[in-house]
Amino acid sequence: ALVSMRQMLDHAAEHGYGIPAFNVNNLEQVRAIMLAANDTNSPVILQGSAGARAYAGAPFLRHLILAAIEEFPHIPVVMHQDHGTSPSVCQRSIQLGFSSVMMDGSLMDDGKTPSSYEYNVDVTRRTVEMAHACGVSVEGELGCLGSLETGEAGEEDGIGAVGKLTMDQMLTDPEEAADFVQKTQVDALAIACGTSHGAYKFTRPPTGDILAIDRIKAIHSRIPNTHLVMHGSSSVPQEWLAIINKYGGNIPETYGVPVEQIQEGIKNGVRKINIDTDLRLASTGAVRRFLAENPSEFDPRKFLKASTQAMYDICKARYEAFGAVGHA
Ligand code: G3H
Ligand code: 13P
Ligand code: NA
Ligand code: ZN
């Protein structure tokens, strides 16, 4: 059944678990996520970005998610719009039937330039007013995502600030978060705590606390009723990088956020964990391997089945690691 983000994350908070929010663009991703959720009895957040709408078309994206709800009626599903760049983009998604929208006012509506605090409060407050009138939840964002190791904002594809960030920009301020929530009334808040979008988060194997866990703790204690969201939470599985590179790919050495660090975040108030890159890597690795090992196959269902299976395994592992299993 379709549920709001507020309803799903309230339950997660009450029971102390986290929910992976997977980006979806195609049938195989949606099926992999739903099959894993069904087999583990886990709640589901399916999120679509502007890039997903450009790729699949808004009606197909919407109906893929509606099909998931129809096929698995016993699984609660949040249909979430990822990284909305303006109140009008969010309004369109509300009209299409999304049960949750992200108004990312941490950047200007070009999706690149860091915005002023006043701008962020204004666009987010207006979105909440509109969304709440329709029973739709809102996720805001405060702070700019960036790797605490490299100071880089991550991929420059319109969902992250460009270039180097200061330490101040890369960590959400707890007092500002409290003011932001009071002024905007958001249901969930994406925070900057050391993660960044894409596959290139860290250049060396992360050890110890590579996220600002104390900062997460401090933010959570100031806004205990607002659900914390961690973007850029792919773990960048080394085994899939190796498979991609073994079968003709060329991806340089790189590392993601260790699952144990995400678990620390969950212990300290993180409820929604955004993952896109891991499913992309698994899908690409599985397709490369299948085609290399089966050079005479040309039925796309064969290599797409391998893709679905690889993504399924990641989804299942995340549901288990984040404690979401059995909470559907
Ligand atoms: O945070 C962004 C997601 O990874 C979506 O990426 O804009 O390429 O669809 P995309
Ligand atoms: P990753 O690139 O780490 O998968 O993050 C995805 C994300 O934050 C989508 O909003
Ligand atoms: Na989001
Ligand atoms: Zn994101």
TrEMBL record:
Pathway(s) served: Carbohydrate degradation; glycolysis; D-glyceraldehyde 3-phosphate and glycerone phosphate from D-glucose: step 4/4
A UniProt-annotated Pfam family: F_bP_aldolase
GO biological process: glycolytic process
Sequence positions that bind Zn(2+) 2: 104, 141
Protein name: Fructose-1,6-bisphosphate aldolase
Binding note for cofactor: One is catalytic and the other provides a structural contribution. Binds 2 Zn(2+) ions per subunit. One is catalytic and the other provides a structural contribution.
Positions that bind dihydroxyacetone phosphate: 198, 232-234, 274-277
Keyword Cytoplasm listed: no
MF terms (GO), sorted A to Z: fructose-bisphosphate aldolase activity; zinc ion binding
Source organism of this protein record: Cognaticolwellia beringensis
UniProt record similarity statement: Belongs to the class II fructose-bisphosphate aldolase family.
Superkingdom of this protein's organism: Bacteria
The enzyme's E.C. designation: 4.1.2.13
Catalytic residues as annotated in Swiss-Prot or TrEMBL: 82
Cofactor: Zn(2+)
Record's keyword terms, sorted: Glycolysis, Lyase, Metal-binding, Zinc
Transmembrane segments: none
Swiss-Prot/TrEMBL catalytic activity: beta-D-fructose 1,6-bisphosphate = D-glyceraldehyde 3-phosphate + dihydroxyacetone phosphate
Biological role stated in the UniProt entry: Catalyzes the aldol condensation of dihydroxyacetone phosphate (DHAP or glycerone-phosphate) with glyceraldehyde 3-phosphate (G3P) to form fructose 1,6-bisphosphate (FBP) in gluconeogenesis and the reverse reaction in glycolysis.
Leader peptide range in chain numbering: none
Binding-site residues for Zn(2+) 1, renumbered to this chain: 83, 197, 231
